[in-house]
Design goal:
about 375 residues, mainly alpha, about 0% strand, globular
Length: about 375
Amino acid sequence: MEKWKQKLLQKQPMADLPMVILVITLVLFGLVMLFSASYAVGSYRFQDPYTYIRPQAVFAVVGLIAMWIASRVDYHIYHHLAFPILGVSLVLLVVVLFMPEYNGCKRWIVTPFGTLQPSEIAKFAVVLVFAHIISLNHSKMQQFRYGVVPFLVILAPIAGLMLLEPHLSGTVLILGIGGILMFVGGTGLRWFALAIGGVIAVVACAVVLLPDLVPYAMSRLESWLDPFADPLGAGHQTIQSLYAIGSGGATGLGLGNSRQKHLYVPEPQNDFIFSIICEELGFIGAMLVVILFVALLLRGMMIALHAADKFGSLLVVGFVVQVVMQAVLNIAVVTNTIPNTGISLPFFSSGGTSLMMLLGEMGIVLSVSRQAGQTRY
């Protein structure tokens, strides 16, 4: 214990300041918009406008402390923790299948302290394990045995368990993160293309040939193609989201002045919070959100390029790409660019597990930035 205390308190190189500012800005901006988007729903459903912002603010404070601690811990410790964390995530993905359903899905484990979403831990575990394996075998990644097999063995059970929830968007996100890390890690292009093609084929077959496995997939595909065919049913959420976006115009109706959050847009505090941002802050506010995520990606890539070793570089790529990819998918869903997949907007949507994991991951990114230039072999 004393050793860890000394390690935390000892003077270390500065963490990347631009990344710190970006993360804190996203957290604060997210809290402001979450309160604005959620107070109406909280008042109508629970007679408490602070229902969603209160716990989120607590998680934000705890998460920022966790980020600071993680930034001061040598990230190489995750070489030893990667597989144990993967094992825990697999166990939790099994446990969640026995939990009560919410909106037709089993994605949350109910505990005395709140809910826990195992898919968030699974995303974290995939980045750790992939970075660990690739950093050990980077010179042999061109071979099918090292560049493809271990990753498919890891992704297959995770994807299968998440489809059983069902959680199609989470499955797509985890497969995307894994694919990018394989590509960056040096998997042979022919094997990479074969693996990606195989995964897409399996997921597509599961959706088309086994509709009971992902029962909502076909209806959401149909509502994406023509949401106005069922304006009071499957297309309702998308239509109301588009109304909110269109109402915002260039400068928006003003912070707090959204009309669509008053029980028109379902889940304005969660998956569709971006539509409320567009309505209240307009095109300018929407572009500010996009610019912040692009800046996070660019700064993350800069940290990855200057990382002390391949393990650190891959950790940064994995965590930053996860955040940006999730943001892109969320914005695409809200604007009806892709079918509605039920995916949250990082740092903005309500969800304590997600925010805690995001800030912990950003702490690891900052830990890598502290050791930039200290070459390790």
